[in-house]
Design a protein that fits this description.
This protein is mainly alpha-helical. The chain contains 10 helices and 5 strands. Bound molecules: retinal.
Length: 334
């Protein structure tokens, strides 16, 4: 039962309080970002809306699991003779809730990736499944292995190796998904999947480090380091990853012509853009009359058909634009 080093190590009050703080700040951040992710969905093209919505689900799941770890932590120690000592009765501390949480969130995080890469629905399902299988096997091998974190480390190491094999398989599948998505990723957004790849390796790679730490001995610093790495990795792989993906799909939506996304990304112009001077119209009295831009108004030049349709009420005039040296765009539409 005492398979976690937390239950055999006496902590200084700084160490104990540092872990309390880390756990509390982590679940607080997860709960706080639920609302953010829900709200960021409505600017996105419908096909990408599930990306931040799934982040909100991940936030809720992680928040509850870490809240559970936090209350376990509070109940597992007693302050006796100036130090926090594990009670190891009634309640014992365990990291198993983390693995339970990952079982839910890892498949979700991988599904988000497939959606964000703009794959077709059938490919999203297929790719998500192909990544989720090694992902879940990796976690369950690790869950079983972490029960051997105290004493003889052969159990910890054996299952750590099994889990690492699933991890390598997962890495290959993730790479395949990113490559498959590159085809329909517009050129200006191509650096994103590439950066995402390195972010994925750097942050997911933290978990095996935390897993292996107990081998350095049952010490207070190791307990603190393991909890800190797990929490930091969780914030990176769930929250920061969610922010990156939300931003990526916002750009994709804007690029694909979805107007609310373009609005959300645009900053307001410093002054109303009315175009420069230069437009002239020919009328009956003067050969060329200036038609300067009027803020808030359109200048409409019509052709002969419209003159006929309006019974001659609106005149089809000749018009021209003189080059004034300032940049101007003309978009004729027929
Ligand atoms: C274990 C066991 C030791 C070997 C390896 C592991 C990898 C775990 C990983 C977990 C990722 C979790 C995420 C959770 C987010 O919600 C199981 C520690 C390789 C990569 C991303």
């Amino acid at each position: 039962a005492l398979s976690s080093i937390e239950n055999i190590v006496t902590l200084t009050s700084q160490q104990y309080q540092l872990v309390s703080l880390i756990l509390m700040v982590s679940y607080g951040a997860f709960f706080a970002f639920i609302l953010f992710f829900v709200m960021s969905a409505h600017n996105l093209a419908p096909r990408y809306r599930l990306v931040p919505i799934l982040s909100a689900v991940v936030m809720a799941s992680a928040g509850i699991s870490l809240l559970q770890e936090f209350s376990l932590w509070k109940e597992s120690y007693a302050f006796v003779d100036g130090a926090f000592r594990p009670l190891a009765e009634n309640e014992v501390f365990t990291n198993a809730y983390r693995y339970g949480n990952w079982t839910i969130t890892v498949p979700i995080l991988l599904t988000q990736l497939a959606i964000a890469m703009g794959l077709r629905q059938s490919d999203v399902n297929r790719r998500a499944l192909r990544m989720a299988v090694p992902g879940v096997l990796m976690i369950w091998a690790g869950l079983y292995g972490q029960f051997g974190a105290v004493g003889d480390f052969s159990h910890l190491n054996l299952w750590g190796v099994v889990s690492t094999i699933f991890f390598l398989w997962l890495i290959l599948e993730v790479r395949q998904t990113l490559i498959a998505g590159m085809v329909n990723t517009p050129d200006i957004l191509k650096p994103w999947p590439n950066n995402l790849w390195w972010f994925f390796l750097a942050t997911w790679g933290l978990y095996p480090i935390a897993y292996a730490l107990p081998q350095l001995g049952p010490k207070g610093e190791i307990v603190v380091a393991q909890q800190a790495i797990f929490c930091f990795a969780d914030i990176a792989t769930k929250l920061i990853y969610g922010l990156i993906l939300a931003r990526f799909v916002l750009r994709r939506s804007a690029f694909e012509g979805y107007m609310p996304a373009a609005d959300a990304m645009a900053s307001p112009p410093e002054k109303p853009n009315t175009g420069g001077p230069g437009l002239q119209v020919m009328n009956a009295q003067d050969p060329w009359v200036e038609a300067p831009p009027i803020p808030g108004a359109f200048v409409v030049n019509i052709g002969d058909i419209f003159e006929a349709w309006s019974g001659g009420r609106y005149k089809s005039t000749q018009h021209r634009v003189l080059n004034q040296g300032t940049e101007r765009f003309s978009c004729p539409l027929f």
